[in-house]
């Protein structure tokens, strides 16, 4: 999985996907603390997306709300990111 290298402040506005185009559980990259981090969308609106993400290389998660400039779609699944926990929650909910 290749981590993006683009500076969010230098992204072409035409390439920025609106946050309301994301759905819950969509895998994304978010820019926090000077680096792109793997995460998953919890909820999104026209103004921002709330994302659960891995704030470091270790297990564990953080939650943050970001504007579109700081979010990128992600195709690859990262086994240590929030997607794993989210999938387990979805699987349990479907069993009920």
Summarize this structure as a short list of keywords or feature phrases.
disordered C terminus; alpha+beta; globular; 96 residues; 1 helix
Explain what you see.
The chain is α+β, with helices and mostly antiparallel strands and 96 residues long. The chain has one helix at 82-95, and strands spanning 27-32, 35-44, 49-53, 62-66, 71-73. The protein has a five-stranded antiparallel β-sheet with strand order 4-3-2-1-5, with helices on one face. Mean pLDDT is 83; it is low at 88-96.
Query: What's the total number of strands?
Result: 5
> Which residue ranges are poorly predicted, with pLDDT under 50 across at least 5 consecutive positions?
88-96
Q: Name the strands of the widest sheet in spatial order.
A: 4-3-2-1-5
Q: Name the helicity range.
A: 10-25%
By oligomeric state, this entry counts as single chain
Strand content: 25-35%
Shape: globular
Report the order of strands and helices. EEEEEH
The largest sheet, given as strand count, sense and whether it forms a barrel, is:
5 strands, antiparallel
Rg? 13 Å
Number of helical segments with 4 or more residues: 1
Derived from helix and strand composition plus strand pairing, the structural class reads: alpha+beta
How far apart are the first and last residues' alpha carbons, in Å? 34 Å
Mean pLDDT: 83
